[in-house]
Design a protein that fits this description.
The complex is a heterodimer.
Chain A lengths: L1 H12 L9 E10 L10 E4 L4 E4 L5 E7 L1 E8 L6 E7 L5 E5 L11 E3 L4 E3 L7 E4 L1 H6 L16 E3 L11 E3 L12 E4 L2 E2 L12 E7 L2 H4 L10 E6 L6 E14 L12 H14 L3 H6 L6 H10 L5 H12 L3 H8 L4 E13 L3 E13 L6 E15 L4 E16 L30 H7 L19 E19 L2 E20 L4 H9 L2 E2 L6 E2 L6 E25 L3 E26 L17 E2 L6 E2 L6 E20 L3 E12 L10 E12 L13 E13 L9 E7 L5 E7 L8 E13 L5 E20 L8 E24 L2 E18 L7 H6 L13 E5 L1 E4 L5 E5 L2 E3 L2 H6 L6 E6 L4 E11 L2 E11 L2 E3 L5 H4 L35 H8 L5 E3 L2 E12 L4 H4 L4 E16 L22 E9 L1
Parallel strand pairs in A: 1-7, 13-16
Antiparallel strand pairs in A: 1-4, 2-3, 2-5, 5-6, 8-9, 10-15, 11-12, 13-14, 15-16, 17-18, 17-51, 18-19, 19-20, 20-21, 21-22, 22-23, 23-26, 24-25, 26-27, 27-30, 28-29, 30-31, 31-32, 32-33, 33-36, 34-35, 36-37, 37-38, 38-39, 39-45, 40-44, 41-42, 42-43, 45-46, 46-49, 47-48, 49-50, 50-51
Chain B lengths: L1 H17 L1 H4 L8 E2 L4 H8 L7 E2 L2 H5 L3 E3 L2 H5 L4 H7 L12 H23 L4 H26 L12 E4 L12 E3 H18 L14 H15 L2 H14 L24 E3 L2 E2 L4 H4 L7 E3 L1 H4 L8 H5 E5 L2 E4 L14 E2 H14 L3 H12 L16 H15 L6 H10 L6 E5 L2 E5 L12 H7 L7
Parallel strand pairs in B: 2-7
Antiparallel strand pairs in B: 3-8, 4-5, 6-11, 9-10, 12-13
Helix pairs in contact in B: 3-7, 3-8, 7-8, 8-9, 9-10, 10-11, 10-15, 11-15, 15-16, 15-17, 16-17
The chains are: A mainly beta, B mainly alpha.
Chain lengths: 1066, 458
């Protein structure tokens, strides 16, 4: 880049004269000498006339020259500048192959919006490109995971506050109740299939479109930012190339000891205390609710069925058991993921192709769970009619199969529960029913009712995902400057999930028994649900069809003006159908079921409880349909290659339900401006040869299809009387609008000489306008709140990217740094009457104006009183009136602590290369946010499964005076929920979540430097990769993982993984 | 070439735009609909998350239970329960008041249905009439629930000036309605009941007791007239109701151990409704440690009375909790209409006009099915006063936990029975004298804030 800019200035001063006599148009093409790929955006300068042209997106250019000899200089970023001499008329076609410039190799030039490829140099918008090398640094099955911790503006939500929350956000959240997932584009079209269908080895690069100028071409889908994934294609006039990549990743077993549990012995003491208090009396008396083994012994002793000595002996035996030891032994293994991929690519003058195949096989740490995936990707393009017509066709196939255990053993009843005895024989554990009850049932003609996890420790749920994407495209150059493109894509994704609980499974036996009726005189058993397996079969089919018609226009007027424009229209139809079925009495031999023998509308008495229930028919079906008609235009005008103005507009119309036709669509637009400061005559900073200023303004949108302008209702399940019912989803809202996001972005790109230091800074402001929010209605309306376009948000932020070549000798050292700030707040929200308790416990449902959407609020702690009761500030005074505390809506009684998502984040990656060895380390930091930690919770401790709640138990208030040294409240029996929650939600339990972690290390050994190897391989690399190395620093001093602030055995910190692999290209 | 292209493009564009309308008319989700068929409108009325609920405040304020200890009182989950127990003037502490919101949701649903019926003018007159009757009944049922809770007891002398409730006649959510007089509220209820009575099917639907019938209209009329003190009209309504539905359950065939002795469609039920899903601590089933059934009421049952073992479960020394009543599940009490209530209404009306023998015979009709076989002695009364006393005692014993006690206390005190309720917490005695303004619940603050309707003086 630096060389390029300097050259421009040098050339500008030398004026050459001889004008050509007879002009003729000659065409040429710029390609990469190494890959043969076309190089769009290359600058071709006739040094003799000082005339310049720029190659188009196929690398082609046209010069108008008279006969004679000319010197050409061809510049292209990260390639060595080439000077050639040509003789007009030409003897052969002019193809200029540029050699790569190793110094600048890492730069990627083209950004793709999904509609067009723009040389980054000329892009007014805010784009981030993650190139192939950076994507492949990480090893794994999922392509999106590879974006984690390597780029600015993008954040992965590690601990979600709501299940529906998107896995990742670009520049924070842009909505309140609308869709929050970024739009994903695969090649030219939105991709809404499973992201795991995509083989990461097929991906050439990923562009992230952040501001309005970059993203508004996607209109109403772009409100959350856009991720454009581009797959590999072949190149014209390139030689056949093949390669393989294979790797093996091994991960540790999950750390089940991370959650703080009571030891078996401690917990038995607590159970003994509770037993003495009578806490289990009513449970024991009902005869069937599970009670732990220790309580069985205590009860037997209390009823004088066993002696004190015997009971102590039996209890001592329990104290030696540890269920986590059993689980690690029998249910978990180290995970192993294998990945294999292979590709062929190449091209002739009229044809280019790329074919790849991939196979992944993952054995999860839970021994029953596994995943495998086959992918096939093939695309082919050829040109006709003297290169005027290009036809593309492609297919991406993916088939994956995931096996898991449903209803598997996951939540022990006590820390001393056992899966197997000393001999390793499977033991029965309680599931839903007390062991003694099941023992009793064994005396009857009921089916065996025992649950032995180890006898059923195999996968019973199988999900098959099959997807194919067909692409067809047609590019036709009508005249020199005008091209037509017609693109079509079809995608089908079939998802079949089959949960098969065979006749022997506890799940099936339990359901059959539950509804059984015993005739106590004859002992015979009548079974409303016939004996046999139970199968849940859920199928969904997603079909999408896209068609796009687009006109591309490029014209240079004189030497100074360049216009480039696209316009077109697009139609889209996404149709998803689903059918869920449940079969009882399923016979795997004959594949028949007994559903017809079952009355699903009858209220049956549950055998053990006397409650009534219906047999779940498990039927469901429905569809979702998304239809869009869109019109778009995007133009850019370039003056003196110094100033570029871009304008973009789009109108989307969709099948919003019950909306007047004129409100179905929304026009969205953006404008961007670019100024290459370094090309100004007054620019003199020779140490900073590249300096570019960008600015953009515009709108993107977001829509919620659940809101409609008519009175609408959604079909619910059947009511208890067996009739279908409808729920009114919203009252008529005639003024319904689409959500809009206004983005103002500024950008500065720079590079010092030889790219020693280069980077970009993008400050931005985002306004969420007309966001869906709730407004209160007088309750007499019959609807509590009204969802409408009533909320606004404001986000301010900055993305910074810095690349530094620290050492460039035999030892190469580069540093890449990203830094993002993202601070949002809700600026207007009409419902402000939520109680403090709901603001604190579910801030996402009751956002408060002035604070971020993801906020942490807490009661103001005021210490324990002399009885060990928690107190917080209420109207300026310490209080333990928990009801008043909960039900106050006076916001001065609670404290806004901060954001619960990182507000500053980024990474620093240091890469070293010495001869054939490369090593890089990535450090990721996430700052400026908070989490709420767990502490002793009286209510949970004294209820079923309380053993999982050992945190701060030893610090609790025990004697008067303890309030001076501890904040952990005294334990009460019975516990009082509001008292516990006052403590749980107080500010002393909110911790700073800031952290810095060593995310991963990548090691490459490039063998292609070795003579005998380079004969056969253009590239041969052995690599190693270690992920999740651990924290370097955490703000909290309690050793808590901010990503997993409340660990549970089903949710522990991500284990470390180690991968090794080989990559070879022929 | 160029012209051809332009030509083709023009055609393509015009084709595109002409089929655009129908292309974008398809609805996005199979599960959403703009209800406009009779089946869909019925579907709205079948919604069990909205319909068939009545308020719970009358239950927590009445004397059918008490809290077992101060400690348990302080552990009550909601402030409304704590305040309601001691009839605090400040009742809700900002909590959501389902007693107000749920009936208005039912009215909103009913109005939405009535509006579509009016607009559509369906061909199938019979079906459409039935739906209209159903929606009218729902509106009347909800209005009566609101007026008995949020307005003073009906008194024909003051009814024209007493405040009733806002009468919503349209589903328009923006429209704010002020409170009508008590008299117009009752007039509105009876207007709806007239329509419902004319249009609804006669038979009580055996498997769908959530749906109203002529019998339900008459049973509700009997209940309302009794509350108003109009015994002659109440008796006529009760008598007519029994012509359509007089099924009784013999408790000798009912399990005395099951926690759910009855079902949702149990024979005696004429129309099913339950208390709103709130105030579990004070109204729930099973062993709820915080309250016990009023021991004075428990003492009324003789040992041969099967109701003692079928209605209650003994959960401690002298502590009784509730089993499920005429519901098949859930955690909240039955508040719907049933044959036994209609018989008791009839008996009360008969007693009040001196027909003691007929009155007692009416009670005996169901009482014989409440006692252990052959161990029931028929009730007799020698005086009108004794008959009334026996009827009212049966009203307590048979209709306990049905949410009827509070409106009974309101009318008894209006008629001069002078009942004062007493509660003690933390050694402080709270009392509710007869006809106290606290017999009328305050309207939720949110309603006052957003619609500015008149608050009750409490």
């Amino acid at each position: 880049m630096a060389a390029l800019c300097l050259n421009f200035k040098a050339e500008a001063q030398s004026q050459n004269t001889p004008p050509p006599l007879k002009n003729q148009a000659i065409s040429g093409k710029v390609i990469s000498a190494t890959t043969g790929e076309a190089l769009p955006g290359a600058v071709i300068k006739v040094t003799t006339t000082n005339h310049t042209v720029i190659s188009n997106d196929k690398g082609e250019f046209i010069l108008t020259l008279g006969n004679g000899t000319y010197n050409l200089s061809i510049y292209y970023l990260s390639y060595k500048t080439k000077n050639i001499s040509i003789q007009i008329p030409l003897k052969e076609s002019l193809i200029i192959a540029l050699d790569t410039d190793d110094k600048n190799l890492k730069e990627v030039e083209i950004v793709s919006t999904g509609y067009q490829n723009i040389p980054k140099e000329r892009a007014t918008g805010s784009f981030t490109t993650i190139d192939n090398e950076l994507l492949n640094r990480r090893v794994g099955t999922n392509i999106l995971d590879r974006l984690d911790g390597v780029t600015s503006a993008l954040i992965f939500n590690k601990s979600k506050t709501q299940n529906t929350q998107s896995d990742l956000n670009i520049r924070g959240r842009s909505t309140i109740f609308g869709e929050d997932k970024p739009l994903i584009i695969l090649d030219n079209f939105p991709y809404e299939g499973e992201i795991t269908n995509i083989n990461p080895n097929d991906i050439k690069n990923i562009n992230i479109l952040k501001d309005a100028a970059a993203a508004s071409i996607w209109g109403t889908r772009a409100g959350n930012g856009v991720i454009v994934i581009t797959t590999y294609k072949g190149s014209y006039q390139s030689k056949l190339e093949t390669g393989i990549n294979t790797n093996l990743t091994i991960g540790a077993k999950p750390d089940l000891y991370q959650p703080s549990w009571f030891s078996s012995s401690q917990y038995i003491d607590i159970e003994q205390y509770l037993f003495n208090q009578g806490a289990y009396t009513s449970t024991i008396s009902n005869g069937y609710t599970p009670i732990s083994a220790a309580i069985v012994i205590m009860d037997a002793h209390a009823k004088n069925k066993i002696s004190r000595a015997d009971s102590l002996k039996q209890i001592d035996a329990l104290k030696n058991y540890d269920i986590r030891r059993d689980m690690l032994k029998y249910l978990y293994r180290p995970s192993t993921n294998q990945q294999y991929s292979f590709y062929v690519k190449g091209g002739s003058n009229q044809n280019k192709y790329f074919i790849s195949a991939g196979y992944d096989r993952n054995l999860a740490s839970r021994i029953t769970n596994s995943y495998n995936r086959y992918t096939l990707n093939a695309n082919n393009s050829f040109t006709l009619l003297n290169n005027k017509l290009e036809i593309n066709a492609g297919i991406i196939l993916s088939s994956s199969s995931s096996r898991t255990i449903n209803q598997g053993y996951s939540s022990p009843a006590s820390p001393y529960e056992r899966l197997a005895n000393e001999q390793g024989n499977a033991l029965a554990v309680q599931r839903g029913l007390r062991l003694s009850y099941v023992d009793m049932a064994a005396e009857t003609n009921l089916l065996d009712w025992y649950y032995k996890p180890l006898e059923e420790n195999k996968a019973n749920s199988h999900t098959k995902l099959t997807s194919y994407i067909l692409n067809a495209g047609l590019n036709y150059s009508i005249i020199k400057n005008l091209k037509l493109a017609l693109l079509y894509q079809h995608q089908t994704q079939l998802n079949v999930q089959n949960d098969n609980y065979n006749a022997d499974s506890h799940y099936a036996r339990d359901i059959v028994n539950r509804y059984s009726v015993i005739d106590h005189t004859t002992g015979s058993v009548q079974r409303p649900i016939p004996q046999g397996g139970i199968v849940n079969d859920s199928r969904s089919q997603y079909e999408s069809n896209f068609a796009r018609f687009q006109i591309n226009y490029d014209k240079s007027i004189g030497n100074h003006h360049n216009i480039s424009a696209i316009a077109g229209m697009e139609v889209r139809n996404n149709y998803t159908t689903y059918i869920n079925q449940r079969f009882y009495g399923f016979n795997e031999e004959t594949f028949t079921n007994a559903n017809s023998a079952i009355d699903f509308t009858k209220d049956y008495t549950i055998l053990y409880s006397g409650n009534t229930g219906r047999i779940d028919a498990g039927q469901g079906s429905g569809y979702m349909l998304d239809r869009y008609l869109s019109y778009f235009v995007n133009t850019s005008y370039e003056l003196h290659s110094k100033y570029i103005l871009s304008l973009s507009a789009r109108k989307d119309e969709s099948n919003l339900f019950g909306v007047k036709p004129n409100q179905r669509g929304i026009p969205l637009w953006s404008a961007g401006l670019l100024w290459n400061i370094n090309k100004e005559p007054f620019y003199k900073l020779s140490w900073l040869p590249h300096l570019k200023l960008r600015g953009s303004y515009g709108y993107t949108g977001n829509v919620s299809k659940n809101l409609t302008a008519l009175l609408t209702a959604s079909a619910g399940p059947n009511n208890r009387y067996g009739s279908a019912y409808y729920t009114i989803t919203n009252p008529p809202n005639p003024s319904l609008k689409w959500e809009r996001i206004k983005i103002i972005n500024a950008g500065l790109d720079f590079a010092t000489i030889n790219n020693r230091l280069s980077g970009s800074i993008d400050p931005y402001i985002k306004y969420g306008i007309d966001l869906f929010g709730e407004s209160p209605l007088a309750p007499q309306a019959g609807v509590a709140t009204f969802k409408g376009n009533t909320a606004n948000t404001l986000t301010k932020g900055l993305d910074l990217l810095l690349n530094s070549n620290n050492l460039n000798g035999p030892l190469k050292w580069t540093t890449n740094l990203t830094f993002s700030i993202n601070k949002d707040k809700v600026t207007s929200y009409n419902v402000a009457n939520g109680l403090n308790t709901s603001v604190i416990s579910s801030p996402y449902n009751s956002p408060l104006a002035g604070n971020p959407f993801f906020s942490i609020y807490a009661y103001k702690w005021a210490g324990l009183d002399n009885k060990g009761d928690p107190q917080v500030m209420l109207d300026g005074k310490p209080s333990k009136d928990y009801s008043l505390i909960f039900n106050s809506s006076e916001r001065s009684n609670i404290r806004y602590i901060g954001s619960s998502v990182p507000t500053k984040y980024g990474n620093i990656r240091n890469s070293f290369a010495y001869k054939s060895i490369e090593i890089s380390l990535n450090i990721v930091y996430r700052l400026g946010y908070f989490f709420r930690r767990a502490s002793l919770d009286n209510t949970t401790l004294y209820s079923t499964g309380g053993y999982k709640n050992a945190i701060d138990y030893d610090k609790r208030w025990r004697n008067p005076g303890d309030e001076k040294i501890t904040n952990v409240p005294a334990l009460l029996y019975p516990a009082i929920g509001q008292r516990d929650n006052t403590y749980m939600y107080s500010d002393i339990l909110v911790e700073k979540a800031d952290n810095i972690r060593l995310q991963d290390i990548r090691l490459n050994w490039n063998l292609n430097g070795i003579k005998n190897i380079s004969k056969y391989f253009s590239k041969l690399q052995v690599y190693g990769y270690i992920n999740n190395l651990g924290y370097l620093w955490k703000a909290n001093k309690l050793g808590l993982d901010p990503d997993v602030p409340r660990p549970d055995i089903s949710n522990v910190s991500t284990p470390r993984t180690i991968a090794i692999g080989i990559k070879a290209d022929l | 070439m160029n012209w051809k292209t332009v030509y083709c493009l023009t055609i393509a564009v015009s084709l595109f735009t002409s089929c655009k309308k129908s292309f974008l008319d398809k609805k996005p989700l199979s599960t959403i609909t703009a209800p406009n068929t009779i089946a869909e409108l019925n579907g709205l009325l079948e919604n069990q998350t909205i319909m068939n609920y009545t308020g719970g405040l009358p239950h927590i304020s009445a004397d059918e239970y008490n809290i077992v200890s101060d400690q348990q009182y302080y552990s009550l989950t909601t402030a409304t329960e704590r305040n309601g127990y001691i009839w605090d003037r400040n009742l809700y502490n900002g909590e959501t008041v389902l007693d107000w919101e749920v009936p208005f949701s039912q009215i909103f649903y009913a109005n939405s249905v009535l509006k579509v019926l009016e607009e559509k003018n369906f061909k199938d007159q019979k079906q459409s009439n039935r739906t209209k009757g159903w929606a009218s009944f729902i509106r009347a049922y909800a209005c009566y629930d609101l007026v008995k809770n949020f307005s003073p007891v009906y008194n024909s002398i003051t009814a024209a000036s007493d405040l009733g409730i806002p009468i919503k006649l349209s589903p328009d959510v923006d429209q704010v309605t002020q409170r009508s007089s008590l008299q117009s509220t009752f007039d509105h209820i009876f207007r709806d009941l007239e329509i419902a009575g004319r249009l609804l099917d006669a038979e009580v639907p055996e498997r769908n007791k959530n749906r109203p019938s002529k019998a339900a209209v008459l049973a509700l009329k009997a209940r309302i007239y009794l509350y108003m003190g109009n015994y002659s009209m109440a008796e006529i309504a009760a008598d007519s109701c029994l012509l359509y539905h007089n099924k009784l359950i013999d408790y000798n065939g009912i399990s005395t151990t099951a926690t759910t002795p009855f079902t949702w469609n149990t024979d005696e039920v004429i129309y099913q409704s339950t208390q709103v899903v709130n105030y579990y601590d004070l109204s729930g089933y099973g062993n709820v440690p915080k309250f016990q059934v009023n021991p004075n009421f428990i003492a009324l049952y003789s040992d041969n009375d099967l109701r003692k073992v079928i209605f209650f479960s003994k959960t401690g020394v002298n502590k009784y909790n509730m089993k499920r009543g005429y519901v098949g599940g859930g955690s909240y009490p039955f508040t719907g209409l049933a044959t036994d209530e209609v018989l008791i209404i009839k008996a009360e009306c008969l007693a009040r006009r001196g027909e003691t023998a007929l009155s007692m015979e009416t009670l005996n009709q169901y009482l014989i099915k409440r006692y252990k076989k052959n161990l029931f002695t028929k009730l007799t009364a020698s005086t009108t006063e004794e008959a009334i006393r026996l009827v009212l005692e049966e009203r307590v014993k048979e209709l306990i936990w049905r949410g009827l006690r509070w409106s009974d206390l309101k009318r008894f005190n209006r008629d001069g029975m002078n009942i004062t309720l007493i509660r003690v917490i933390n050694n402080i005695t709270y009392s509710l004298p007869p006809n106290d303004s606290r017999y009328v619940f305050p309207i939720p603050d949110q309603e006052i804030a957003l619609s500015g309707i008149t608050q009750n003086q409490r």
